Hints:
The complex is a heterodimer. By secondary structure, chain A is α+β, with helices and mostly antiparallel strands. Chain A contains twelve helices and 15 strands. In chain A, a hairpin with a 2-residue loop joins strand 8 and strand 9. Chain A is globular, with a radius of gyration of 19 Å. Chain B is of the alpha+beta class. Chain B has two domains: 5-82, Beta-grasp domain (Ubiquitin-like (UB roll), Roll); 87-179, [2Fe-2S]-binding domain (DNA polymerase, domain 1), CATH 1.10.150.120. Chain B is 32% helix and 13% strand. Chain B has helices spanning 27-34, 79-85, 89-97, 107-118, 126-132, 143-159, 181-184, and strands at residues 5-12, 15-22, 53-56, 59-62, 75-77. At the A-B interface, strand 1, helix 2, strand 3 and helix 6 of A face strand 4, helix 4 and helix 5 of B.
Amino acid sequence: MKPAPFAYARARSVEEAVALLAEKPDAKVLAGGQSLIATLNMRLSAPALLVDINGIDGRDGIVHKGGMVEIGALARHVQAERSEVIASFAPLLASAMPHIGHPAIRNRGTIGGSIAFADPAAELPACLLALGGEIEAQGPEGKRTIKADDFFRGLFETALGAQDVLTAVRVPAAAQDTRTGFAELTRRHGDYAIIGLAASAKADGMGLKDVRLAYFGVGATPVRARQAEAALSGEASEKRIDAAIAALELDPPDDVQATGAAKKHLAGVLLRGVVRQLMEPAR
Amino acid sequence: MSSRAFDITLIVNGGAVTERVEARKTLVDFLRDDLGLTGSHVGCEHGVCGACTVRVNGAILRGCLMLAVQCDGARIETIEGVSDSGEIADLQDAFERRNALQCGFCTPAMVLTAQELLAQPGVPSREAIREHISGNYCRCTGYQAIVDAIEAVAQARSLSPSFWGASGASEPGIRTRDANAHLDSGSGPAGRPGMTVTRRAT
Lengths: 283, 202
């Protein structure tokens, strides 16, 4: 199908984008467009106005500063995939990146767009949640920072308001004791996951602490498995992993790819593999 | 200021093009319907099949997931352009020799996608090839021969990197068609408009 007619405007600054978003009640930000344009083509959405932010300069940097890795909203997936900063200081993002779509998608899709779109089966929202990252947004009232834990509110619903523009995402830079793990199951490489898991932790002697497990493809938002996180704290053992799997409080709904029961089972399978990754020393 | 139609000027396969487009028109529809470059195919229209793959400013993209209006000032290359320039002559030969297609609907995009992988240094593993073309999987399951063709070209190019591209490097022992022959006559082959299409908005 073809998109329904819409008006289009190019913003040259974040301030201009915020102002343009007020022009029509149903205006949407167009970043990489790899999800948005698909929904337009399918007429799943028909906004009155698209505000194209691709022409805003200086919003695609990936930098390490103040103990954080900051990724400008317009950084393309391919930039993150090739970034030395990501490879060295955000290894979870580095391992997730090749699973996101396909090369042609990664050449165009943006990190900010993926977070703002908040597809519950997408990799990056779960990674941001697993890392305890934060989102920087700018709206009519100025700038604000939102914690990943408070950002994903419902199905394709975030803490962003109708006139907010996501400007950057930040994750804590990996330290010597940072451990991360990532796994997903898909029918075809690059597809949205049937289920996936992004995880981070701190090494603590022979075990782990501060474990954060963020599942995707299991509900309306990426979901933390807090009881399993707690069960994994302490000295690592197969028994502890078994206990964490038993403690998984997920209740995934059935979808076109798998039943909820199958996903719940797969959640345990993924957790076993990901905990092994968490136990490996940082490269 | 927002609007529903825009004048855009861009370079398509080396030639300047100026057209008026509706904001809602996708790049692939623009290339096919307005410029007659029908080598880029429209399959799923939501980014899954990859049949609409084109190159924008040197990187492959989904032609159905970018708006034509966003391409103002961009440099676009379609399968017609890279075919006429001879850049992919060896890939085309390898596909032909191995019959690396069934219906051929996915082939132009498959070739463009393969070319991007082969532009990276080194010879990719079969697994890396499969991963790279995973966004172009279509219906026929005939991928074995496609992977064979891409792998063979990768190996051939690594042996003679200086020939890569323009003059048509090929696998050893395989004759390469003279990809530039039709350019010497000053016009593209029949049914392939677009090398130097220049239009003005009316």
